[in-house]
Amino acid sequence: MLQWIGRCLFLILKGAFYELTFSEIVYSFISGFTLDLAFVSYFLVLSIFAYWLGKSLHQQLFRFLFIALGVIFLQVTIIISLADAELFAVWGTKFNRQALQYLYSPSEAAASSSEAQWTGIVICWVAFTLLFYRYLTLLAKAIVKSSQTPAQHMYTAVKSIITAAFFIIPIRGGFGNIPINQSVAVFSVKPAANMAAINSGWNFLYFLINKNETIDAESYHYCHTDNDEGRIKYYFSDTVVGAPLSDMSKPNVCLIIMESFSAYGSKYLTGKHNAMPFLDSLQKAGFTMKRAYASGDRTDKGLAAVLSAWHGQPWQSILHEPDKAAKLPSLARLFNENGYKTSFLYGGDLGFANMRSYLFAAGFQSVRDQADFISAEVTSKWGAHDEWALKKFLKISSEEKEPFFHVMLTLSSHEPYDVPGGPYFNGESSHKDFLNSIGYTDNCIRRFLTEAAKMPWYKQTLFVFVADHGRDFGYTETQFDRSGHFHIPLFFWGPALHPDLRGLKINRVASQCDIAETLSQGLLSPKKLNFKNSASLLNTNRRSPAVYFFNSGFGVVEGSAEVVFHNQPKTSTFVNGRQKLCDSIIKLGQVFQYRQIVKYLRY
Questions:
Q1: What is the pLDDT of residue 502?
Q2: What is the pLDDT of residue 58?
């Protein structure tokens, strides 16, 4: 009940009340229950130990501890809910890492809240404190009424430990692989509805416990020249080309993002392993980027790159901060504006890495994940295997009104590679299980396209295939910071692909982030660039390099040159190519990283 009171305070006091319908307000309580329970469970664990101490030592001690903990819990709930209402009114978001920095600067924090309705806030605070204090006093008296024998003390201790251990389950969010995070409460495309559902107290503790060091953008400003802007413009063109990706008007688009599909699993791309023979046959017939690179090393980073052309920054994904991720441009929003129906499908849990929050903010009209599959289909450790997900993807596309922009993220090629059937890869490799899982997904895609070819919508559809990120295959060039680690498949194929592009192989460097502007310019004919630092792959004059980020560093690939730079030693750790070109792209990477961090901090 106390958490519901906190949510009401958030909604009413400069919060989201007037932006939401009645049903959205009601659902914010329902959707936010899991985080409410998790936050309350912290208090219950502490109260259980206070109960044990009180029973074992002194009843008055228990009463004091119980009431003190309750009052503190009340203060945290009420004060943070009120603060969140103020933050939402000013920033359109709840407490986050940016707000955390204000705790170290009280004067700035006070200045930021100068317009707060202090009279109403103080009245609410005092009234709720007095009422809850009275309630806790009566409850404490009811819990402890008599002393105990030594045997009863032991029984109380065991009972308390077992009960406290039970509450670890709601604190963690259940028995799943993924700890609870803000995404479990996200249910709407309206930020106000999602902010109302997220428990303020839990959200505060999350950022307090998981706080990062203060980010100083200037500490990443290694390259000080008068021509930083010129350097960026030289490599990242803002030219809009008229080259079409399709000869059809508003074709359907099916974008399949493949988990961990490294180019080193493709015989066609690298000659290393023949794990994806069907996809290789499509690459030979389609419009293929033979030197495409991911922008990061995790799925959440890949989603931001593919759908928002966000290159990243040298730490965790921007999706970990939903308020920042919500401000990114997105393909879904762009296709929505052009009359397309948009949807996203994943066989796993989109609560992972706040992906659900990002996808709703990106404007997808329909977002489906593991919860939309029947239990018989959820046979993988991570969710529904790709054969089931692709069947659902086929069903969604067949039932949707055209034109549509549908995106699917595969999962079966994620550890532990427990794919059904097989074997799908017959070669010899220390990574045989992983390659076998790639072969499984390759086979699933083959069956999906075979069935799709029977559907009316198929003849008006463009298929786009790209990996979310690569991986290490044990080769020198696939080490975690080298370009081979980020080398991925990226190609366009299907009946709607322009005839002039079929069978065309591009050997120039391409970035995962270029997909967004390629689809924008190639299908929607915009008059200006929709995605910054994303270049249409149809632009034969583009000079865009591939910039990728890893923890505390970046790499740049341009033409025949490659460089890797680490921020801790502040030096390049790998340079390959003509010295003049390498010097140029190192400076580009330094300037680009600094610009990305500045942009990230401003979001």
A1: 97
A2: 61
Question: SS3 for 138?
Answer: helix
Choose among 469, 354, 358: nearest CA to 410: 469
Two tokens at 536?
Answer: 């249409």
Q: How far is CA 291 from the centre of its chain?
A: 25
Cβ 574 vs Cβ 548: under 8 Å:
no
**From CA 158, how far away is CA 566, in angstroms rounded?**
52
**Separation CA 11–CA 14 (nearest Å):** 7
Q: Tokens 């397309």 appear where?
A: 340
In DSSP terms, which residues pair with 466 in a beta bridge? 257, 490
Average pLDDT over residues 276-292: 98
Between residues 385 and 68, the one the model is more confident about: 385
Q: What is the third-level CATH fold of 217-602?
A: Alkaline Phosphatase, subunit A (3.40.720)
Q: Which amino acid is at 269?
A: L
pLDDT at 459 over 70: yes
Print burial letters for 11-23: b (CB count within 10 Å at least 16), e (below 16): bebbbbeebbeee
> Closest Cα partner for 587 from 187, 217, 225, 175?
225
pLDDT (mean) for 427-446: 94
Tell which wins on pLDDT, 341 or 351. 341
| Distance between CA atoms of residues 550 and 367, nearest Å | 28
Q: Are strands 461-467 and 252-258 parallel, antiparallel or unpaired?
A: parallel
Instruction: Write out the DSSP string of 220-237.
Output: G-----TTHHHHHHHHS-
| Structural domain boundaries in the chain | 2-209, 217-602
Burial group, residue 382, by CB count within 10 angstroms (0-12, 13-18, 19+): buried
| Per-residue tokens: 102 | 């204000």
Residue 229 CB contacts under 8 Å (≥ 6 apart), including other chains = none
- Contacts for 364-371: CB closer than 8 Å, 24+ residues apart: 364/189, 364/332, 364/407, 365/189, 365/332, 365/336, 365/341, 366/341, 366/342, 366/396, 367/343, 368/343, 368/344, 368/392, 368/396, 369/345, 370/346
